[in-house]
Amino acid sequence: MANVSVFNMEGKEVGTMELSDAVFGAKVNEHLVHQAVVLQLANNRQGTQKAKTRSEVSGGGRKPWRQKGTGHARQGSTRAPQWTGGGVVFAPVPRDYSFKMNKKEKRAALKSVLTSKVQENNFIVLDELKLPEIKTKEMKKVLDNLKVEKALVIIGDDSDNVVLSARNIAGVETAFVNTINVYDLLKYNTVIATKSSVASIEEVYA
Q: What is the DSSP letter of 162?
């Protein structure tokens, strides 16, 4: 099992914690990690892009000039793609970009990223993270104590003050245990989690 230091909100080390190998010591599968990121980005696409083909634009029913004898190239319609106001060749149409991954593959990808964060010393455990009131300045002070700028903060369900205090800090995102995903874990340099959040992660994803 991997041992990590546990810090308090002042940035001082107050102990250590053993992490479960089932989640934080898994085999890193880069293929599944890549697939999980592509999945999330694809599923976020609206797929509403649309342009008209030559059969959909209005007008152009009449041949603009006779076939021969004008000195011009032959033309059949003013709505062909080479004309101003003509249709688009192979125009995009609304479509669904989403695809699916097996639940076990998603879980393996998540474990791979969490394991990588621990191996790279980019996983910080706090004994607790509680703010008595909504204060961005107080949350920023905690991050400065930990010497962290860009971070994903994984919190428990009773941390509304933390969520509201962190939302205006650039480069900082909060997430609950049941909403963490591969893309966000990779997007932020550092992952910060409370001891209770780590226990919940091990319980949910082991």
A: H
Element (H, E) at 16: strand 13-19
Report pTM. Answer: 0.80
CATH classification for the domain delimited by 2-45+98-205, as one of 3.30.200.20, 3.40.1370.10, 3.30.457.10, 2.60.40.2700: 3.40.1370.10
Q: Which residue has the tokens 């990223």?
A: 113
pLDDT tens track, the chain, 206 positions:
678 888 998 888 888 898 888 889 889 999 999 999 999 999 999 999 999 999 999 988 889 999 999 999 999 999 999 999 999 999 999 999 999 999 999 999 999 999 999 999 999 999 988 888 899 999 999 999 999 888 999 988 777 889 999 999 999 999 999 889 999 999 998 999 999 899 899 888 87
